[in-house]
């Protein structure tokens, strides 16, 4: 696979120019030059991304292999390959306050995991399932490891079911949870339908429950986190259960974290729920979310409702907004519902 990294062609060409005269001398010098070039190439391949890297550098980074495209929002991202990561927000039009430093830091977290020998991507559909439905080839789980055997969070990024905003609304949040010791997985689901996406979430949950020992995670008291469209997926599971979407007969999450969505469904069977939204959200009306929180409480569900003023829609970690730090509040809510 060709490595698409800025400056590599120039650097490798430079290496070839220096190597050519050496290979015209003795074999000993030529061998040394080849080894030096191999080391230099490896360093280039494994280097960290920066805000000056391009979107194409993510796809072609050797740490991400064949699943590199699934890190990005769309099924076909080739038109964005030359966009610098400092402008990565342009790939996710429904999201606000996209912080390129947060995006890059989370991607480098994954790169370091690979360099340390960890597997970071898991398929939850079989090859047979993918043959029957080629759209399922655009699915998977990205694993941000915390402590072995620690409780597990599954994060569902939004994007209006027209893209998956993992770069902003999944990976940075998962990184923070992993750094606090929790195991966090970000789902890449099929684009185009809330039904498909929720079916993918149900399949992913079944996969995690079936493989929790091998993955070194604890599915007891798991939490589901979702923003916007992803919050609809979470709401569907909380309302109807995993089996209703083709998964196993699994328990509902111990806690749901629902951020900025217009979904209004509720029942007394919902798990304890943390809800957050900003007053200036132009997509998810704050009054709709306030009413949902009220209805859940009236149905006997424990609810923590955290509104903000100016963070907009799809604020991710909320870096640089009045929602900054909301993840800690949601985490503390979940921690109260984790069995000691």
Q: Main beta sheet: strand number and arrangement?
A: 8 strands, mixed
The H-and-E topology, N to C, reads as HHHHEHEEHHEHHEHEEHEH
What is the global morphology? globular
- Low-pLDDT residue intervals, each spanning 5 or more residues: 1-41
Structural class: alpha/beta
Number of helices: 12
Number of domains as seen in the coordinates: 2
Radius of gyration: 22 Å
Mean pLDDT figure: 89
Which architecture of the largest domain per CATH? 3-Layer(aba) Sandwich
- Report helical residue fraction: 25-40%
Strand order of the largest sheet: 1-2-4-3-5-6-7-8
- According to CATH, what is the class of the largest domain? Alpha Beta
Q: Span between N and C termini?
A: 47 Å
Explain what you see:
The termini are far apart. The chain folds into 2 domains: 8-45; 94-335, 3-Layer(aba) Sandwich (Rossmann fold). An 8-stranded mixed β-sheet has the order 1-2-4-3-5-6-7-8, sandwiched between helices. Helices cover 39% and strands 14% of the residues. The chain is built from 12 helices and 8 strands. It is α/β, with parallel strands linked by helices and 340 residues long. It is globular. α1 runs antiparallel to α2 and α4 packs across α7 (171-179).
Secondary structure blueprint with pairings:
Blueprint: H1 8-23, H2 27-45, H3 55-60, H4 100-115, E1 121-122, H5 127-132, E2 140-144, E3 151-156, H6 166-169, H7 171-179, E4 183-188, H8 194-210, H9 212-215, E5 218-227, H10 229-240, E6 255-259, E7 273-278, H11 286-298, E8 303-308, H12 326-335
Parallel strand pairs: 3-4, 3-5, 5-6, 6-7, 7-8
Antiparallel strand pairs: 1-2, 2-4
Helix pairs in contact: 1-2, 4-7, 8-10
């Amino acid at each position: 696979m060709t490595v698409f990294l800025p400056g590599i062609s120039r650097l490798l060409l430079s290496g070839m120019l220096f190597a050519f005269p050496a290979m015209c001398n003795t074999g000993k010098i030529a061998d040394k030059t080849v080894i030096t070039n191999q080391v230099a190439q490896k360093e280039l391949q494994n280097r960290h991304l920066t805000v000056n890297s391009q979107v194409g550098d993510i796809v072609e980074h050797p740490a991400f292999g064949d699943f590199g495209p699934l890190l990005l929002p769309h099924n076909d991202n080739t038109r964005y390959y030359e966009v610098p990561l400092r402008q990565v927000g342009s790939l996710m039009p429904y999201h606000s306050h996209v912080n390129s430093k947060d995006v890059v830091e989370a991607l480098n977290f994954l790169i370091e995991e690979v360099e340390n020998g960890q597997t970071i991507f898991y398929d939850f559909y079989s090859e047979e399932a993918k043959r029957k439905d080629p759209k399922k080839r655009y699915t998977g789980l990205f694993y941000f490891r915390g402590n072995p055997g620690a409780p597990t969070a599954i994060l569902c990024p939004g994007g209006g079911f027209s893209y998956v905003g993992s770069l902003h609304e999944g990976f940075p949040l998962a990184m923070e949870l992993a750094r606090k010791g929790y195991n966090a997985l970000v789902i890449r689901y099929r684009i185009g339908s809330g039904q498909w996406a929720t079916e993918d979430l149900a399949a992913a949950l079944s996969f995690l429950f079936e493989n929790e020992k091998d993955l070194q995670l604890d599915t007891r008291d798991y939490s589901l986190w979702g923003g916007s469209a992803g919050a609809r997926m979470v709401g569907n599971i909380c309302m109807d259960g995993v089996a209703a979407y083709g998964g196993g007969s699994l328990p509902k999450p111990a806690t749901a974290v629902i951020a900025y969505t217009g979904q209004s469904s509720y029942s007394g069977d919902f798990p304890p729920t943390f809800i957050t939204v900003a007053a200036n959200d132009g997509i998810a009306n704050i009054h709709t979310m306030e009413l949902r929180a009220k209805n859940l409480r009236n149905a006997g569900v424990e609810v923590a409702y955290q509104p903000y003023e100016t963070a907009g829609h799809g604020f991710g970690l909320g870096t640089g907004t009045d929602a900054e730090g909301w993840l800690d509040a949601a985490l503390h809510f979940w921690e109260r519902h984790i069995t000691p």
